[in-house]
Amino acid sequence: MKNRLFVSLLIGAMGYAHSPLMAKEIELPSINVIDRQEGGASSIPGAIDIISPEEMEMIQPASLQDALKTVPGVNARDEEGYGAIPNIGIRGLSPNRSTKVLILEDGAPIQPSLFLSNASYYSPPVERISSIEVLKGATGLRYGPNTIGGVINYQSKTPLKDGIVKGKLGSHGYRLLELEAGTSSEQKSMGGGINLITSEANGFRNNGYRMNDILVKGGMAIGQSQWLGLKLTRYENEINTSYVGLRPDEFIHTPTKNPAPDDQFLSNRTSFDINHELEIDTSTKLKTLMYWSQLERNFWRRDVASKTRQGTSFVDCGGTAYCVTGRNRNFDMLGIDSRLFTNYQAFGIQNESEIGVRLHSETMSNKTERSNAGPRARTGVITGNENNDAKAVALYLQNRFLFTDQFAVTPGVRVESYRQNRKNEMNGVQGQANNTELVPGIGATWQLAPELQLYSSVYKGFAPAMISAAISGDGVDQKLDAERSMNIEFGFRGQAQKWTYEGAAFRMDFSNQIVNQALSGGISKTNGGQSLHQGAEGALGYAITSAWSVLANATYIPVAEFKGGTLGPIGNRIPYTPKLTGNLGLNYSKDGLKSFLNAYHVSSQYADSANTVQESNDGTKGLIPSFTTLNWSIVYSPQKDLKLFGVVRNLFDKKFISGRSPDGIFPGAERNFELGLAYQFY
Questions:
Q1: How far apart are the first and last CA of the chain?
Q2: For site-directed labelling of 497, which of 51, 88, 128, 347 has its Cα 20 to 30 A away?
Q3: Count of other CB atoms within 10 angstroms of residue 468
Q4: pTM of the full predicted structure?
């Protein structure tokens, strides 16, 4: 049985054809977290979701974070409005800076670091991503730490032969131009190309941005059994955004106000990947990925003097007092990940094995600069300077035992050994922490009938303590346990005639969560304590006719509570964990015209561990009310080389609070639209 995301199955049942502008891509070696081979998805004993290129086009998302809102179990919280600073959580885990999920691009980690500070400060532009894979369950252990909630893998486009030009205009001064060009040899043994994107806008809250992105990608066959792929990216973005949100009266009267117009988030990222694939024989394959990335993130913010219900007052830049602070970080990451896949017969049954090793190294420069030169100062006196580094070695093994054609069991284990170093360059104080973690898991799949597959998994979740918590400012190893949980999942998936369906029940029982050092309230050891998440997610699709279809998904998390420790009062609900999130969509596709109407719902949620209901004067605490938004997108291809498209988001202009973190109210985007066209050259 072909198990894919329920929408993909539904589109296939409708006879959905690839449009000319979605021409077949050149095949390059890559690491997918979900095997795209026939039956590959059905071998995974966990919930999986794939947002295909066709679905990406249908949704017309503003960002990758926006696209992920359509996936069951995912809670994505908007901050600056365009998803450049992603806040993604899975199955009730905190979405703050996406620290509870592992995010990859083409199999390589894109969070700035995995062992020093894994907060996300970067997200690729949605226009250069072809599809998205989301993997939950025990098999995610193969890809690294921070996989408790799951693994997200963005698949970048392979530039098409010849070229495409795309342009978009929209609300709030939004403009985008994308150019794509590629070529391949006559024998299809070599190919590649370039994708260029430039975009800018004034911003939903007068918090504009200017972004440029370059992707160069190519590959070649080496003889009959080897393939080599190369990818280079360069990303630059300047965003007029801040940690400071709106205060309650500002949200009521001026929800589009930028309360900190002088603050800027400046980010530059360069990455280079090499993918090599060797087919040793018909049953054995070796895949190797070498990845390198460098991220520069400079965040310049006015110093806050006071907060009231009416607004925020900043320190006066009169020339004497420090009034602007730059929190500037540079990250370098280098690694090599090699995986051996082999199929073999043993003890009378078929086996599929994956054996892997990863060597990983990363550094982080963390500087604080303060200035009294004016509100737009971008240099100053260095008042804090740290250089930190981490090295890790991981070994992992997974074997799938196919006891019958219908039943398989997949045990696996990962051993992660890592060393963290922290050094204060201002006073020479330094410290080191060494840890080794054994992370086992086991899963099973059972093809109960051609229309129904059951699966389950049990696995240990693991996330290392970040450097600011693991080693104190005076260089002392805090002897922190890693963040650990015992996770259980049961699910089903399948299709029957015009129906597609999937569902899963899950439980994540944390024996220890790590409290961020900055929020630990003077606690010297920041092992946070116990918490419990349990709930269910599901999706259902139905092809009404060959043109019309309806689809829905929902995630219900009745239990997300503290069980003891310093995280929060026992029994209180974990912040930013809505009980219910869901999507309901109506799709039309016929004769070159596609239209998609989608309702997105998020129930109420708390903003703090005390579960404060009454809104605080500064807006950082208080219940976040539920909201429902409606998006409508349309795509029309009048001829094979031309495509017209548009989207209206928040169709009824719903005013809602997206979050109260880091400091104040961050409103959701008001009604906005985009219009565009794409033309393909042959």
A1: 37
A2: 51
A3: 19
A4: 0.92
